[in-house]
Design brief:
Blueprint lengths: L2 E9 L5 H9 L6 E2 L5 H4 L3 E2 L13 H17 L10 E4 L5 H10 L11 H7 L6 E4 L5 H15 L4 E8 L3 H9 L23 E9 L8 E10 L9 H15 L8 E3 L8 H12 L8 E3 L2 H4 L6 H15 L1 E2 L16 E2 L5 E2 L4 E8 L3 E8 L2
Parallel strand pairs: 4-5, 4-6, 9-10, 9-14, 10-12
Antiparallel strand pairs: 1-7, 1-8, 2-3, 6-7, 8-15, 11-13, 14-15
Helix pairs in contact: 3-5, 8-9
Length: 374
């Protein structure tokens, strides 16, 4: 059946969605000196930070970015939560773990109820009653999107706000620092000489409505395929990724060869990029497809739970503007990417009809969304 994205709001290191897309088209990299934690102790010197325009300290920062996107997306869609029932689904990987770490390290009180985003959502959108937080690692936004589509298609809700947010935590930064001999300087997705992932702060919100809803829409969600393979705590499983892709096509009643563009997960890590390439070759290329492939993490870092919705916003803008940004930082494609047509070096003028949006998370929680022009 499908559902419509009535509006989309994004915050990355480059600013809002329009500013982010412009930076992507220019091939810019938003990496800068790490502003949180001790770079020497963490072995991480670089992060992709949202400009400090939301105020306050680190504790609660994810919620503040989230609130900014929620208000923006709801305003653009013309919703009034005080008069309409508007459920809100929030995807996240780390929730407000930074505040808990501050509590443990400095004694600064942080109520555990603030780990989730119910209070943040209800303050930003007075009148909202139903708030669910999904902590589904780096595909959390994609899982929330699938649930929202089910809700509007079944008639359970006329409109659902799907949102996501993540900022940096010492524990996540320390994990990154433990698996690299020297601190990385940028993320280089699908590059032969990639050096690993770096975190990017990010938040996003989209309003999902049923087909035939009032007002314009920025994209149509055809289907989202999901898998949860539990193959390994951190290592991706090609078979699990393939299952999520095939699930999306089965739900959509579409053929893999129809995909014109893939907005890839592309973390720039030793394991994820080869696995994603193998899955794309097995599902899309083997079916006769020849999609253009792009990715955003070289420009904005890994925005964790909001990665799927950031990718969705980029996909919608590619559909609208007929141009695809290059993969920032990609110079020489890794061997597993042979045969895949990556956008690199400069923007590509093309008007895709069907776009595949990938999001994969630790533990094998995978979400693949198919979108097209509304």
């Amino acid at each position: 059946m499908g559902a419509l994205v009535a509006s989309s709001a994004v915050r990355t290191c480059f600013g809002d969605g329009a500013q982010t897309f412009a930076a992507l088209l220019s091939g810019r990299c938003g990496a800068g000196p790490l502003r949180y934690g001790d770079p020497a102790a963490l072995n991480v010197a670089v992060g992709y930070h949202v400009p400090d325009d939301v105020g306050g300290d680190h504790a609660g920062r994810a919620g503040r970015l989230l609130a900014d996107c929620l208000v923006d997306a709801v305003r653009r869609a013309g919703l009034d939560p005080a008069r309409q029932r508007v459920p809100v689904l929030v995807g996240t990987g780390l929730r407000e773990l930074g505040g808990v770490e501050d509590w443990a390290l400095t004694g600064t009180p942080f109520p555990l109820s603030r780990l989730d985003f119910g209070d943040v959502v209800r303050t930003a959108l007075p009148g909202v009653a139903d708030v669910v937080t999904l902590a589904n690692a780096c595909s959390a936004g994609g899982h929330a999107l699938a649930l929202a589509q089910d809700m509007v298609e079944s008639g359970d809700a006329e409109a659902v706000v799907v949102a996501a947010a993540d900022t940096m935590t010492r524990s996540m930064l320390a994990m990154i620092g433990k698996v690299t001999p020297e601190p990385g300087t940028r993320v280089r997705p699908f590059d032969r000489d990639r050096t690993g992932v770096l975190l990017g702060e990010g938040a996003a919100a989209v309003v999902v409505v049923g087909e035939g809803g009032p007002g314009p829409a920025v994209a149509r969600i055809v289907a989202t395929g999901l898998s949860c393979d539990a193959h390994h705590e951190t290592s991706p499983d090609v078979d699990g990724i393939v299952r999520s892709m095939r699930d999306a096509f089965d739900r959509a009643g579409r053929a893999p060869s129809e995909v014109d563009l893939v907005v890839a997960h592309g973390t720039g890590t030793a394991l994820n990029d080869p696995a994603e390439c193998r899955a794309l070759r097995e599902v899309l290329l083997a079916a006769g497809g020849d999609p253009l492939v792009t990715g955003v993490k070289g420009a904005v870092g890994h925005t964790s739970g909001s990665a799927a919705l950031v990718n969705l916003d980029v996909a919608a803008r590619c559909l609208e503007h007929g141009v695809v940004p290059p993969v920032a930082g990609l110079r020489e494609v890794l061997p597993e990417g042979a045969g895949l047509r990556f956008a690199r070096g400069e923007r590509v003028a093309t008007r895709p009809e069907l776009v595949q949006v990938n999001a994969f998370g630790f533990g094998g929680v995978n979400a693949v969304t198919l979108v097209e022009a509304a």
